[in-house]
Design brief:
The protein is built from 18 helices and 14 strands. By secondary structure, the chain is α/β, with parallel strands linked by helices. The protein folds into two domains: 6-203, 3-Layer(aba) Sandwich (Rossmann fold), CATH 3.40.50.720; 246-462, NAD(P)-binding Rossmann-like Domain (Rossmann fold, 3-Layer(aba) Sandwich). Strand 7 (178-182), helix 8 and strand 8 (208-212) form a beta-alpha-beta unit. The structure holds 1,4-dihydronicotinamide adenine dinucleotide. 1,4-dihydronicotinamide adenine dinucleotide binds next to helix 5. Belongs to the UDP-glucose/GDP-mannose dehydrogenase family.
Amino acid sequence: MTVVKNICCIGAGYVGGPTCAVLAYKCPDIKVTIVDLSEARIAAWNSSNLPIYEPGLDEVVFECRGKNLFFSTNVDAAIQEADLIFVSVNTPTKKSGMGAGMAADLAYIESATRRIAEVSTSSKIVVEKSTVPCRTAQSMRTILDANSTSEIHFDILSNPEFLAEGTAIKDLLNPDRVLIGALQTESGIEAQNALVDVYTHWVPKERVITTNLWSSELSKLAANAMLAQRISSINALSAICEATGADVDEVAFACGKDTRLGSKFLKASVGFGGSCFQKDILNLVYLSQQLNLPEVADYWQQVVIMNEYQKKRFVRNIISTLFNTITNKKIAVLGFAFKKDTGDTRESAAITLIKDFMQENARVAIYDPKVEPQQIYMDLSEPGVVDTQKEVEKKVQICQSAYEAADGADAVIIVTEWDEFRDDQLDYSKIYAGMHKPAFLFDGRLLINAQKLRQIGFKVSVIGKNELAGTA
Ligand code: NAI
C-alpha cells in the first residue's frame, strides 16, 4: 500500500495555496511544499502579507509554515522529493490560435507535466487539481509515459477543487465532497487509495467519492456550468420581474423552498464573475463542439450570453434613469472584487460596467475594501495599448471609503455584496447628504432595503424589482 509522506503542489495561486495549506494543517505527518515560478508570489507566501485574501487563511498558514508547510521557487527539488504532486497551475481561456476565446489554454499544464517527467528520479502520483477539459489526463499520461522507466512509474489522478473563493478555508475544512478519479487499473486504484488516505485525515470517508478519470474531469466542468446556469436562470427571471412587478427575491424564495430545487445560488445580481464560471462553461461549449454536439454547445453558451446581457441591461438602466446621459457625471462604484470576501477581480462584473461608464465619459469613483489600486488600473486598461493606464487614471478615482467615493456623486452603484455596504453598516444618510440631487442608487446585488433608502431621499433601482411593485 502506498503511503504519502511528501507532497509537492505546483502553482501557489488561489487554489494551490489554500488547498495545500489546509492539507498541511490537517496532516502534520506529511511534508507539503508549494512551488511557483513567480518569485514575488512565493516571497509573499513567505511574508506576513499573504498574496491572497481569504478569511481564516492567515491562521492556517502561520500555524504550519516552517513546520510541515513550505513555499519555494525551487520547483525541481520539490518534484524530486515528493511522492505525490498536485498540478494546480492556471488554465485560462486561450487568447489566440485554435479555439481562441473558448478552449482552455493547457500550456501551463503541459509545461508543469514535462518538468515532472524531466526531473523525477522516483515514481510519483501526479494529481490534476486544475480544472481541465475532459480527457486532459490522457495527454499528461502520454508525456509521463514517454519518460517512465522500469524504475520510475507515474500514476495520474484527477482531483478537481470545488472550493469557492471567499469561503475557501471553510470549504476545504468541511467539503461537501472530495472527488478522486483514477484509471481503473491496479496501480491507478492503488494511487487513488493513497490520495483517499490523505483526505480521510479530516474528511469523513463517505464524502470522498472515487470515480473513473473522465467522470472526475467532467464533473468539475458540469458542477460549475450548473451553478452558473442557476444564476443565469434567476437573472433571466429578474428581467421579467422588473417588467411585471413580480419581486425576484420573492420568486427565488418561493422556488427555493421546493426541496428539489434548493435555495442556494438563486440570488439575482448584476451577473456572475470570477476566474472559473465563464472559462469552464466556454470550455464545455468547446468540448461539445469538438464532439460534434452543436445543440449541446448552444445550450451551455446561452448561460454566458445571459450573463453578458444582464450586465448590459444594468448599464442601460443606469444611463436611461440618469436622463439618458452620464457624460461628466460622477458615478460611485461600491465594490470591485467579483464577490465579497475576496480581493480577486478576475472577470468581475465591475470591470465591464466601469469600462462602459468610461466609454460614456462619466467620472468614476471606486471603493473596494480589499482590491489594490494597481490591480484596478490594470483591469481597466486595455492590454497592448500604450499609455492606457494614464487614460484610465484621468477618468477613474480610487477612494479609501464609500463616503469619499459618493461625495459629489450623481449615482451610487453597488456592484460587490461586501457586508460593509449593507444599510445597517454604512451610514446612507451621510452618503445622501454628500451627493448631487437627485441622488440615485442602483443596487446590483439586492443588498439594501430599498424602502428604507427611499425614505432618506434616494431614487433607488434594484435588480429584479419594480418600484411600483405590489401597489398596482
Ligand atoms: P492562479 O493563477 O491564482 O495560480 C496559478 C499559479 O500557477 C500561478 O501563480 C502561476 O505562476 C503558477 N504556475 C503556472 N505554471 C507553472 C509552472 N509550470 N510551474 C510552477 N508554477 C506555475 O490560478 P488559480 O485560481 O489558483 O487556479 C488554478 C486552477 O484551479 C485553474 O485550473 C482553475 O480553473 C482551478 N480552480 C480555481 C478555483 C478558484 O476559485 N480560483 C476554484 C476551483 C478550481
